[in-house]
Design goal:
The chain is α/β, with parallel strands linked by helices and about 400 residues long. The chain contains 15 helices and 15 strands.
Length: about 400
């Protein structure tokens, strides 16, 4: 008997669920089958559900803080999974999400008109956090050889040498390319940033979703001088499907940057933490490892299924095999459609909702992003709609 259930389809409609209840509103077409947005159609680990149930039974939900036991769980998780030992709980700054953490870093350490480098195509909130706050994007486009995305380090060096460039927004593992950066790649990026005194804000929210022989290495774990120049943003939300509980944290080894960051949070956001997010985070990090190992097997199997299904049934559609994340890019350029025609085909003929590649930058033209974190039966239904529409 399987210890964990990743096969049962849990009805999410009617739960104010963005993926299933807002698809029509977001895409402008009714009755689409959702293969978009980065959360999972799996229940959270039972240990998380039970911890929340017990806390709910208490009946009082007043102002709450992160107890030391929570930070002990976070610290133990990061060290055991990623080999990075956090020596002091002071390094942590609770945030309501990774995107608010990105915005806080941007506003606290840059001025309007400053340039922010990022590797595009990239997680789309990077774009609007920068542009909506009067900063300018400096796009260090990834290279794509038809199979895999890689860094353009020469272009990164050139952009970093611009005196107007102040920050690198770094996505690791990278969404949507699925890359898990190697130690050599990370070291090259870190060297460039140190040489040009760039602050690195590293979004590592997908750090636990890594496949096969790949290993996530926190950028700040490379060396003390890299750590001092880095703000690392992490959360249990992608790993354990608890994004709705708004529980994340930034890690700031440098005391001066930490003081500025925390002061900005206090003075501008006056954040009260989500008590259920705290409970869920501690339970997940203390007890969720076996569930995660089982999940990774399921996700790897879904990726293999999607790859095979496309090759056999959807000519011109090719999975860009990810090293990490459960939201890989799919190369649709072989279908011979421009981005608008591709969107119309997927929505109006196939009846599915997928994130357009251009959402992540112009380099995403001809690509879409697929969410494989769903029971196999639902993944098969969604891909089957595309095959049937051809």
């Amino acid at each position: 008997m399987k210890r964990f259930d990743f096969e049962t389809v849990v009805e999410r409609r009617g739960t104010s669920c963005v993926k299933w209840d807002q698809t029509g509103e977001r895409f402008g077409v009714k009755d689409l089958f959702p293969l978009w947005v980065a959360d999972m159609d799996f229940k959270a680990p039972e240990a998380v559900i039970q911890a929340l149930r017990e806390r709910v039974e208490h009946g009082i939900y007043g102002y709450t803080f992160h107890p030391e036991s929570c930070w002990e769980a976070v610290t133990g998780w990061i060290e055991s999974r990623h080999g990075w030992k956090i020596p002091s709980f002071d390094w942590y700054a609770p945030t309501p999400g990774v995107v608010p953490a990105l915005a806080t870093a941007l506003l606290a350490f840059t001025q309007p008109g400053d340039r922010v480098i990022m590797q595009t195509p990239v997680y789309h909130p990077f774009w609007w956090v920068i542009e909506s706050n009067g900063r300018r994007v400096s796009a260090n486009s990834l290279r794509f050889d038809g199979e895999r995305f890689t860094l353009d380090l020469e272009d990164l060096e050139r952009r970093a040498s611009d005196p107007r460039a102040k920050v690198l927004f770094f996505c690791s593992p990278h969404n949507p390319s699925g890359r898990v950066w190697t130690r050599e790649e990370l070291s090259a990026v870190a060297d460039i940033c140190l040489r040009h005194n760039l602050l690195v804000v590293s979004d590592e929210i997908h750090s636990d979703i890594v496949y096969a022989q790949n290993r996530h290495i926190p950028l700040a774990a490379l060396a003390p001088e890299v750590a001092r120049q880095t703000i690392t943003c992490m959360a249990p939300s992608k790993t354990f499907n608890i994004a709705g509980l708004s529980s994340s944290y930034a890690i700031l080894p440098d005391p001066e940057k930490r003081a500025v960051f925390k002061a900005f949070l206090h003075d501008n956001l006056d954040l009260s933490v989500n008590l259920f997010g705290i409970v869920a985070m501690e339970a997940a990090y203390r007890h969720g490892a076996p569930w995660l190992e089982a999940l990774l097997e399921v996700l790897a199997g879904n990726l293999e299924f999607a790859d095979r299904f496309m090759r056999e049934n959807i000519p011109g559609m090719k999975l860009v095999k990810p090293e990490g994340t459960y939201v890989p890019f799919v190369d649709c350029r072989g279908m011979g459609m421009d981005p608008n025609a591709l969107a119309d085909f997927l929505m109006l003929r196939a009846g599915v909702a997928m994130n357009a590649g251009t959402m992540f930058g112009p380099e995403g033209a001809g690509f879409v992003r697929l969410n494989v974190a769903t029971p196999r039966s639902l993944l098969q239904e969604g891909l089957g709609r595309i095959a049937k529409a051809l």
